[in-house]
Design goal:
By secondary structure, the protein is of the alpha+beta class. The protein has one domain: Alpha-Beta Plaits (2-Layer Sandwich), CATH 3.30.70.100. The protein is built from 4 helices and 4 strands, in the order βααββααβ. α1 packs across α4.
Length: 100
């Protein structure tokens, strides 16, 4: 079983992408953290003036360690994006009586 987190940002996904590409050290550090803590996948969906990252982790423990240890880098990325409004939610697989 995996641990899924969604982070919805109100902002320009191109600006978020560009912020990392223009700071290669920050990009490298975040990618190394993703690898170190075992992120399984990240899917980004974009909409009008917003985007959502759907992150799948081996467990809540790895995701929490990533956020804790990468806090300075994640703050810097948000700063470079212009501090977009964001909402983070965690998800679990549906139980049989919740599925469709």
């Amino acid at each position: 079983m995996t641990f899924v987190v969604t982070v919805r940002f109100v902002g320009d996904p191109k600006k978020a992408h560009r912020a990392l590409r223009e700071d290669p050290e920050l990009d490298r550090d975040i990618r190394q953290g993703i690898k170190q803590y075992g992120m399984i996948r990240c899917t980004r969906l974009v909409g009008d003036g917003q985007f959502i990252d759907i992150d799948e982790w081996p467990s809540e423990k790895e995701r929490d360690a990533f956020v804790r240890d990468m806090a300075p880098q994640l703050r810097r990325w948000n700063e470079l994006m212009g501090w977009p409004e964001s909402e983070t939610l965690t998800w679990r697989p549906a139980e049989p009586d919740e599925d469709f």
